[in-house]
Amino acid sequence: MNKEQQRRAGVLARLSSGSLGKQDAEKLLGVSRRQVNRLLRGYESEGLASVVHGNTGRTPANKMRADTLSTIMSLADEGGKYHDFNTCHLHDLLTEYEGISIGRSTLDRMLRQKGVVKPARQKRVQRRSRRDRASKEGMLLQIDGSPHDWLCDRGPRITLIGAIDDATGRIIAAVFRPTEDLVGYLLLTRSIATLRGLPESFYHDRHTILRSPKEATIEDELAGREPMSQLQRVMHELGIVSIAACSPQAKGRIERLWKTLQDRLIREMTLADVSSIEDANAFLPEFIVRFNRRFGREPQDPESAWVELEVDTDLDYYFATSETRVVRQDHTISWYGKAYQILPDEECMLIAGKRVDVRVTPEGCTSLYIGRHRLAHKEVETSGPAQKAVRPRKQPKTPDPGALARRRAWLFQSNAA
């Protein structure tokens, strides 16, 4: 018997002998008068055995079978299929693929007892205040890029660029790129706009792709302009508010997402033998659906903040880099070693000397615009640099043998006179 059972047996013995009243026994045992009478009858008929629980010494009905425990350990231990997976991820995979149903806390306790999972060391962190989630879906999207060894030495080191909705915690879009570049963010933004719509704001770090580091000049201040990166310009034209975070902790939701994906996504791509950036991008959609189903939550406000794109939206105009060029007198422009001939247009017939907007999509497609009007054009051959005319050298004259003698004679006659 344990200490509690021994104490209960002592109270019942005193009650049975008459040295303790039932009212005092109620207080000592913490039960009602009815329970005191029941316990007393059991003690007088069975003795000390009545205070021992009936399941003592029995095998629990819900105890895990030894073969199931052995299977889990073989999968999670070193050399196993799911070695080094975190407990929550392992719990999901055991339920989905192995048909083993077990509580997550039970699984965690078993792995710790067997030494498969070791407690992580706690780091001292600065005290911060939690920011409330956005109330509506599409109100605030956090975007960022994560360079990492996503392919685990089966391929090159690549970068995952993604966006997570602040209100729901769902991944909205993601794309693998060789590096964190402008093309990746343009592809991400265009994918979000075409699949879901335009969000109210983007929350991001101060990378120069996302925010121009230039200071406004006097001309910019007088004109009411501010220096913008290409992606800033895209967000400004689409009416999306750009919010730059002052620290990684400020956009902690997407930073925690990278930590989760660097654990879960890497291991699932290892199981699927993904070894190239093309295979990784093909693997993402199905993984995102399962991730959102597992970790997504409903927003506080059911009303959506997404703004749908109009049907006739020119994607090549908005989701592209932009630079201006001056039209020559022959209605051509020069663009990085190429020449483009602007074809006749009823709306813009004479535009020589005017500036046109040259926009290049992430796929490299070049389009010309004057305002929002798209100009038809074609590539023509460049004239090349002008060549200087080379004047032929004069051939030296053949000397006359008698010329020198005649000159000497003439000089002699002049001196004699």
How would you portray this structure in words?
This protein has 417 residues and is of the alpha+beta class. It has four domains: 3-51; 66-113, no CATH class; 141-215 and 226-295, Ribonuclease H-like superfamily/Ribonuclease H (Nucleotidyltransferase, domain 5, 2-Layer Sandwich); 315-380, no CATH class. The chain has 13 helices and twelve strands. The strands form three sheets. A five-stranded mixed sheet has the order 3-2-1-4-5, with helices on both faces. The chain has a four-stranded antiparallel sheet with strand order 6-9-10-11. Strand 2 and strand 3 (171-177) form a beta hairpin. Helix 1 (3-17) crosses helix 3 and helix 2 packs across helix 3. It is elongated.
Number of domains: 4
Number of strands: 12
Q: Roughly what percent helix?
A: 25-40%
The run of helices and strands is HHHHHHEEEHEHHEHHHEEEEEEEH
CATH architecture classification of the largest domain: 2-Layer Sandwich
- Compute the average pLDDT: 87
Going by CATH, the homologous superfamily of the largest domain would be Ribonuclease H-like superfamily/Ribonuclease H
Report the total helices: 13
Structural class: alpha+beta
According to CATH, the fold-level topology of the largest domain is: Nucleotidyltransferase, domain 5
CATH class of the largest domain: Alpha Beta
Unreliable stretches (pLDDT < 50, length at least 5) are 386-390
Binned strand content? 15-25%
First-to-last CA distance? 159 Å
Compact description:
It is built from 13 helices and twelve strands.
